[in-house]
Amino acid sequence: MTGAFRPRVPWIDYLGLLTAYIGVYAELIFRVFIYLIPDRIREWGRRRVIRIYHYYITKKTTDGMTDAIQKCRNIYEICEAFGYKAEEHLLRTEDNFILCLHRITHPSKKETKKRGVVYCHHGLMTNSDLWVAVNEPERNLPFVLVDNGYDVWLGNNRGNKYSRKHVVYKPKDEEFWNFSLDDMAMFDIPNTVDYILHETGEKKLSYIGFSQGTAQAFASLSLNNSLNNKVNIFIALAPAFTPKGFSNHLVDYLVKANPKIMYNLFGRRSLLPSVTFWQNICYPPIFVKIVDFSLKLLFDWDLKNISASQKLCGYAHLYSFSSVKSCVHWLQIIKNCTFQLYDDDLAVITGYTARHYQVPLFPTSNIKCPILLIWGGKDTLINMEYMRTALPPQAKEIEIKHYEHLDFLWANDVKEQVIPKVLEALPN
Predict the structure, then answer these.
(1) 101 — phi, psi (to 5°)?
(2) What total number of domains does the chain contain?
(3) pLDDT, tens only, 150-203
(4) The CATH number of the domain where 314 resides is what?
(5) Pick from 27, 142, 319, 422: CA 20 to 30 A from residue 152's CA?
(6) Is residue 335 exposed (0-12), middle (13-18) or buried (19+ Cβ within 10 Å)?
(7) Quick check: is 167 in a domain?
(8) How far apart are CA 289 and CA 57, in angstroms?
(9) Catalytic residue list
């Protein structure tokens, strides 16, 4: 490769990269230090921190259901706490991942005529817990759908808490984590739809996605024409398409300058696996403060529509494993402001320029099934201007002006603002 193809890197990139490295390794050192402290001393310190927190910051409040959901270890225990049941189903994708699906039922209620099948899919770095980690059943969309006679299924992405299995590779292998949005769109979504339809004997289902769960459906429906014939409506909550970027200017600059900086910082396996360590160590109300601060810093979300008690039980189930590559894919989309397939950086490897090489876009204008977008007026991740130009004419939209991203699952008024709109849109 000649010098003409080597881009000059501004000094501020090196400074930003150095700062990021220092932050990552400082967290690692601190985590190891905490881990090496004897359990008795660590627990003594934890009790003192809790006492100081409640004395100076906020008084301790008790909420039986919130406390119960926060302490649940998985979706099975959450559903059981409300009297529902999560059935486990396993499917093998065409590229040999083993995915876990959850079918939500209510054993104590009389069998009613099913009104249709609904498949719900979660967002980035989460899992099916996200849908049911709600402290009031009337604000829990899957439970409300079940009560209204729908056959409800919750999907899980490859690599997350429930889908850490591959026929050949193990989670410790780098090859296991070599997947992006492309793979989820080409395999996870269509294979899951086929499995659900086979199990239920139905010809079509309704798809409800949240955040990246919408992006996976947009991508999958655009690439797989036959999939459109199996979906009677696609409801997109907080639709992720081409996010505008990060509210923190330094973070936004760094990832847009070079999305592959994530590989330098986190390697090529799972992204931020240490989150689970801090979840176990931190006192839950303090962990809530940390998450609130992080979301405010990155996305400028105020999170005022979500109660403190809902955050306690929701944030405890918010994180799950995903690949660094899938995050890099999103950063490429943000940088280029296009809903594109993963860029393998052939221009860097071969010396090609944009004149010779173009990353293909997902052909979303080819989607044939009905689409309903329900988006928030205060959601900084939404780029409705671009979405309107890229989607087919049958796509309809509803704006909830005071909503941010997570509000579509956990807001105080989700029972009034979101659930009725979903029920009205679903085929009866």
Answers:
(1) -115, 150
(2) 1
(3) 999 999 999 999 999 999 999 999 999 999 999 999 999 999 999 999 999 999
(4) 3.40.50.1820
(5) 319
(6) middle
(7) yes
(8) 11
(9) 211, 379, 405
